[in-house]
Each structure stands twice: as C-alpha cells, then as structure tokens.
Description:
Layout: E1 3-7, E2 14-20, H1 30-41, H2 49-52, E3 58-61, E4 63-64, E5 67-68, E6 73-78, H3 99-106, H4 112-118, H5 123-138, E7 143-151, E8 154-155, H6 163-171, H7 180-195, E9 202-209, H8 225-234, E10 239-244, H9 255-258, E11 262-265, E12 269-272, E13 280-281, E14 284-285, E15 290-296, E16 307-309, E17 316-318, H10 329-352, H11 357-372
Helix pairs in contact: 1-5, 1-10, 3-4, 5-10, 8-10
This protein binds ligand EPS.
The site of ligand EPS has 16 residues, from helix 5.
Amino acid sequence: MLRFLTSGESHGKCLVAILEGMVAGLSIEEASINAELARRQEGYGRGGRMTIEKDQAEILSGVRWKKSIGGPIALMIPNKDFKINELPVVKKPRPGHADLVGAIKYGRADVRDILERASARETTARVAAGAVCKQFLKEFGIDVTSHVVCIGGVWAATENLNYETTKKLSLHSPMHCADKKAEKKMMARVDEARKSKDTIGGIFEVLVKGVPVGLGSFVHYDRRLSAQLCAALMSIQAVKGVEIGMGFKVSENLGKDVHDEIFHDKKKGFYRKTNHAGGFEGGVTNGEVIVLRAATKPYSTLMSPMQSVHIDTKERQLATVERSDVTAVPACGVVGEAMAAFEIAKSMLEKFGGDSLIETKRNFDHYQKQVDVF
Ligand code: EPS
C-alpha cells in the first residue's frame, strides 16, 4: 500500500517526507519536485516567510541514478528560517488555531510546541511527496491541476472553461485564478483584509484529468475513492469544507438537472456531455475529469488580534500575533493537488498492483483492453 509520513516543525531544521510503496523504475528528479515546491510558495497575500524561503528538496533515499528502486523515498526540505530554539514562549492562544486544544491535549506550557507542528509549513513535505505521485500518474496519462474559484466572496467565472484552458490561464496568475477580471477583484479583497489587519479565506478547485474508469469501489464505505479524496482535502490546514462536482448544489436541483446522461461512441466508448458528478458515481471514477472543491477559513493569525486567555494566569488578553499570511488559498490548491495525486496513485496501485513501473503498466494496459471491449 502506498503511504507517506511527514516530519518537521515550521522553524525547525527541516521538513521530511517519507513515501513508501512507490514502484521501482519511476524517473524522479529533484528539479520536478522543486517546481511543485515553488508553486506552493506563490500566491498574492502570502506573508514575509515566503521571501525568506526558497524551498528545495533533497532526495535522501529510495532513488538511484534518477530512478526509484522500490524502497522508501525520503525527501528533505531545509528551513532557511531555522530558529526554533530562539523563538519566544507563547502563552495566548489564537482563536481558530490548534494552539489551545493542542496545549491542553499534549500538556504543554508553551503554545509554541503546538503551533510549530500545526503550521501549514508542513504542507511543504506533502507537496514534495505529491510531486513524486504526480510523476507516477503522468506515466498513465493522468494530470492534476488546481485553481482558485473564490476569495472572500469574490467568485471567478470558470464553469465553462475546459481543463486545459483552466490550467493555462491560472498557471501564471498571482491568485492562481483563471478569470482575469475576478483575479483583480480578489487581489483588492486581499488588500482590504491586509489593511484592516485581518485575514481572508476562499475556495480552490482541484481537477484531475485522464483517470481510468473504475478506481475505488462502492462495495464498502472505506473503499469509496470519492470519500478518500474528501478526507485527504479536509486534512489540509484551514480547510473546513469539501465538495465533489456540483457539490451541495445537487440538493437544490431536480434529478434531470443533476445526473449526467450517458452516451456511447465507437471511438470514445461511454461518455457524458456534462460532468455534474465531478468524475464519480458510486464512489467510483467514471472516466470524466475529477472535480474537487475545498473551502478554507480565514487564517487564524490576525494582525489585529482577537480576545483570548493567558494559559497560566487565566487573565483575558489579546491573542499572540505571529508573522503569517493574509491568505494562502492559491498555495492551498497546490497542496490539494498533492493530496489528490497521492490518493489517486494509492488507488491505482491498489487496483493494478506491481512492484515495478513496467509491471503496473502491463496490468493497467490489460485492464484498459477489457474496458475498451465492454
Ligand atoms: C507557511 C509558513 C509559515 C506561515 C504559514 C504557512 O511561516 P511563518 O510562521 O514563519 O510566518 O506563513 O503558516 C500558517 C498560516 C500557520 O498558521 O502556521 C508555509 O510555508 O506555507
């Protein structure tokens, strides 16, 4: 089974990801991992930290002569801002952050012990592991992208754009947004939040193209790939809600306006003209583009801090102010890509098996032939 662990603190020595269960024979280069890490650092609204760091991964194990050898792949990203032992003690937990629950749960007298690990800096390691998964998916013609659809209530009009256009238009946008007009308004919204010493959240969409029919299963709750993907996105710091395809809107519409009619063509096989289901029926992939959406809350470090309580004296005091981001939704989208890539790679390996890329491809090709003649 494909799995990964991350380790590291926001201002610790480094972040580490260990990816276990990846096939042998996959091309893995630091440059392609670093390209993903650079994308995670982008986005209008980020704080000062992103000007300090230039995240670069070092492959520590599991790769020889630029190919995976089957063993665990360890990736290390050093923190330039390594100062964990010099930072001040934190006593006033931030509402919305893991600060207070973490201090109570782990019995820590210094909230810094909590916030250092709870920080979204950890997502650097997720993106590194996800970059390897993306590389694996590419071998099967599967591509993953993300874009921002909403910032603080400002919506992008991207419903009618196809996968390629969405990817192209959002790629070089400072907001990772495919709608130029909305992008300007989103940036203005970020500026307003910054000016009022506040923070702002939003919604990003993760799209996955080229996924075969039949990943995941309806036969048992924990085998539904749709549910696994939702859990993976929910695990990202600040994410409070996840939708697939039409999402919550399905509840407002009639069946005929929700379900995607089925067509068949000798060349294409079975296909749909709409994709309200977002690539899933019965928790199983149906071959259409997977559409996942996740909403983030406004980030919990406010420059104009909210009311809190000193954890020792129990006095009412304002929460601690740490350097942070006004928003990081574009970066969150890149993390969403990594998590989706990991879950889909895991599902591919579950279905097709194999210890080497050649073996997995052989199994995959056999299955594709079965699908083609159905
Ligand atoms: C982040 C690094 C952090 C924050 C942010 C994400 O850097 P620092 O804490 O040194 O400013 O910018 O983390 C949080 C929002 C958080 O709540 O901890 C990163 O690399 O993405």
